[in-house]
Design goal:
Length: about 200
C-alpha cells in the first residue's frame, strides 16, 4: 500500500507559498509508515520547529489499474475521505533550495492522517465537495474540490501512467490555502460536507 500525494493543486495555496504554478500535477510518495495510527496523538518531530497542517480530500483505490483513462477512472474508487498531509516546512524549504526531494519533510512517521471513509455515492458531484480544517475550534482551512487544478479522475489517470495503482492505495489530492503551523496542545478536526471525519491532538 502506498500514499500518492499531489502538490500545488489549488491556485490560492500556490500563491500563499509563492510557488510556481505547475504545468502538470506535482506527485510525491509517502511511505505507509507515515500513517498516524487511529486514536494516536500527533507528536511534532524533534527535527522541525515549523510543522504545518495541510487538509486534503482522500481517495481510496479499490482495484489494480495502470494507464487508466480519465473516462474510466471513476471505476477505481468507491470511497472518499479526509486527512492531513503534515509537512515539516522548515526542512522542506531547505531541501527545495538545494533541489533535493521532499520525502524527509513529508514522509516522516505520523505525517499522514487518514480519517473515516465515506461512500462516494453520498455526494451528488465528486467535483463539488466542501471540506474544512478546524484548529482549536476555529476554521483555518476551507476548500471545495471544484477549485482543484486537476480533478480526482484526472489525477488518477495521470498518476497511473507512472505507478501501477493497487487495492488500498490512497491518493491525497492536494490542499487549499490556509496552511499553518501546529503547536503542542493544538486540537485539529476535519469536516467533509458537514460530517467530522477526524480529530487529532498535537503533542
Amino acid at each position: 500500500m502506498k500514499l500518492i500525494c499531489i502538490g500545488r493543486n489549488y491556485a490560492a495555496h500556490i500563491d500563499e507559498l509563492k510557488n510556481e504554478r505547475p504545468e502538470e500535477p506535482v506527485v510525491f510518495i509517502k511511505p505507509d509508515s507515515a500513517i498516524l495510527p487511529k486514536e494516536q496523538d500527533f507528536y511534532i518531530p524533534e527535527f522541525s520547529d515549523d510543522v504545518h497542517y495541510e487538509v486534503e480530500v482522500l481517495v481510496k483505490i479499490k482495484k489494480v489499474g495502470k494507464h487508466i483513462s480519465k473516462q474510466f477512472a471513476h471505476k477505481y474508487y468507491d470511497e472518499i475521505g479526509l486527512g492531513i498531509d503534515f509537512t515539516a516546512r522548515d526542512l522542506q524549504s531547505k531541501l527545495k533550495a538545494k533541489g533535493l526531494p521532499w520525502e524527509k519533510a513529508k514522509g516522516f512517521d505520523g505525517a499522514a492522517v487518514i480519517g473515516t471513509w465515506v461512500s462516494k455515492d453520498k455526494f451528488k458531484n465528486i467535483d463539488e465537495i466542501n471540506f474544512s480544517l478546524h484548529k482549536n475550534g476555529e476554521k483555518v482551512q476551507e476548500g471545495n474540490t471544484a477549485l482543484m487544478l486537476w480533478k480526482i479522475d484526472e489525477l488518477i489517470a495521470h498518476v497511473s501512467t507512472y505507478f501501477m495503482l493497487k487495492k488500498g492505495d490512497i491518493l491525497f489530492t492536494g490542499t487549499p490555502a490556509g496552511v499553518g503551523k501546529v503547536s503542542p496542545n493544538d486540537y485539529l478536526s476535519g469536516v467533509l460536507e458537514g460530517e467530522q471525519l477526524f480529530e487529532i491532538n498535537v503533542r
